[in-house]
């Protein structure tokens, strides 16, 4: 994989594949595989080990924010959208239109949806928190079933987290 390292772990909603360099995570995506082929190994870079730990903490309801270094590749517009996604608070949702407005491109709702679908850092860059203007769950590369699970999980954890721990 040319300087890239891979690891997988079993989340409550499927196998998650993590890809990174020695310094940063470049991809966190759900796999449709039933079983892991690449569990964390003793020679996995620390950033991959930390990523898996933080994702496990997220799934266990112990982590609301991520601190792992990430690196994404995309157009300037995509980068703006992905940055705006990270501003959506844990356990909350906003519309694609709200993201378009947040980046100063009110009319670019479809383009925001397209950029959202190209996000390779699922959960860490929370594209699952973006919904249709009618409040319906729409489009999620990791499947709508997973999107629904993630939103329900965050709402449940958010209900049980004291306000001081939500930042």
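^ structure tokens above, recovered residues below v
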């Amino acid at each position: 994989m040319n300087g890239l390292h891979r690891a997988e772990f079993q989340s409550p909603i499927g196998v998650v594949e993590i890809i990174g360099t020695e310094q940063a995570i470049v991809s966190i995506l759900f796999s449709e595989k039933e079983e892991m082929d690449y569990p964390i190994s003793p020679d996995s870079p620390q950033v991959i080990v930390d990523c898996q730990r933080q994702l496990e903490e997220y799934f266990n309801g112990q982590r609301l924010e991520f601190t792992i270094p990430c690196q994404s590749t995309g157009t300037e517009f995509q980068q703006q959208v992905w940055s705006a996604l990270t501003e959506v608070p844990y356990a909350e949702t906003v519309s694609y239109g709200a993201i378009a407005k947040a980046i100063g491109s009110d009319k670019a709702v479809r383009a925001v949806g397209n950029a959202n679908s190209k996000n390779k850092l699922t959960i860490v860059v929370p594209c699952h928190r973006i919904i249709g203007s009618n409040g319906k769950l729409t489009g999620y590369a990791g499947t709508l079933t997973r999107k629904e699970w993630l939103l329900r999980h965050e709402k449940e954890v958010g209900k049980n987290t004291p306000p001081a721990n939500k930042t």
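The radius of gyration is 16 Å.
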